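Table 4 source record.
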Amino acid sequence: MRHRSCSNRPMRRRLQLLAIATVLGLQCRGGRGDGQGDAAGSVDGGSRTVVLPPEGAPFDYQIGGDYPPPAGVRVVSRDRGGEPAPGLYSICYVNGFQTQPGEGDFWLTGHPDLVLRDSGGRPVVDPNWHGEMLLDITSAAKRSAILEIETAWIQGCAQKGFDALEVDNLDTYSRSDGRIAEDQAVAMIRALSDVAHAVGLAVAQKNSSEIAGRKAEMGTDFAVSEECNTYHECYVYQSAYGNHVLVIEYEKASFDQGCRAYPELSIVLRDLEVSAQGSANYVYEGC
């Protein structure tokens, strides 16, 4: 349940300008639910209409553990094992492209063919996150098998009452040493988006600014970005998603700069471990 710092930054900066493409805008049609505001917006997800998070609303990032949101917060992201925040717009976090800590046996014993392997047959582990193995999305058959597993997770998010889905590690392909192609990542997130839309969940693009211009292909509705002020990428997400961009910063200077430069976005300062309230490491501040 740790944050995903954006990786492979040299490549990401080189590709950053390529990410700005003409994309279809999201038509705002009013909000829903308590505290969701009248600028939430909605899109046609296919099977049913899904509702976007309200623009610029106070936000908290709680993937490290549920706790009562600070006063004024209207949007909360929590792990799929947690519960939606009553009365608030709630986003369900799913690690869709890698294994979570503690889930190694589930994949290696139950689904060994769905873990990416190197030339020696060893599982490929994320170089930034010890123990998190990359899932093998390199074929349509394997993507379909992974989708079957993760569909149950997504449906669980909807059954609990979450409003949206945040799929982490879309950018795994950039840390796979070329074993996974960008197009394969796009195909996988599109399949997950279709499942989420079918059960009424909006879908966030998580990080990967270099492919924000492929929003239409991915089927994503808004963005969740870590450290886009630190790496000067917030405008890329805004070009694709308008003001439906939620930002997490881990450095106070970047947070302060973002609040000044992008007052229209939802920006939060958190500690690196996204600790629960009460922890000695807990940090929270909103613009």
